[in-house]
Amino acid sequence: MPDFHLDELTIFDNYEIEEMSDGDVTVKTKVVQSSLNYYGNAHGGYLFALCDQISGLVAISTGYDAVTLQSNINYLKAGHLNDVLTIVGHCIHNGKTTKVVDVIIKNQNEMSLAKATFTMFVTGPRQK
């Protein structure tokens, strides 16, 4: 069997929050070498983790802490090294016990790479 190993996956090395308002969050990041899978594309786990993190930030933007209760993601196109990704999260259900967040990831050419929906369980009001 040839030598095989898994590299460390880096997710939050470089990001910038562009918008964070009540129920809406936009973050930009760049795909780096440590975000790639062994095929040379943006790792699906990397894209999923970006969506999950943004869903948590969307919940925070509504004044509440929350954890992921359920999620679904569709991978639409491959991301590549040095792509500039825009991740947009929008709260489509702002309940007292759950929040539902839609997240989309687009590259610098406005091509959609992934679309996810997260159900977030509210753990309580956000402590400042």
Automatic annotation (TrEMBL):
InterPro entries found in the cross-reference section: ACOT13 (IPR039298), HotDog_dom_sf (IPR029069), PAAI_dom (IPR003736), Thioestr_dom (IPR006683)
Gene3D superfamilies reported in the protein's UniProt record: Hotdog Thioesterase
UniProt cross-references to Pfam families, sorted A to Z: 4HBT
Gene Ontology MF terms in the entry: fatty acyl-CoA hydrolase activity
Protein name, entry field: Thioesterase domain-containing protein
SUPFAM superfamilies: Thioesterase/thiol ester dehydrase-isomerase
Classification via PANTHER family: ACYL-COENZYME A THIOESTERASE 13, THIOESTERASE SUPERFAMILY MEMBER-RELATED
UniProt KW keywords: Hydrolase
Family statement: Belongs to the thioesterase PaaI family.
Keyword Amino-acid biosynthesis in annotation: no
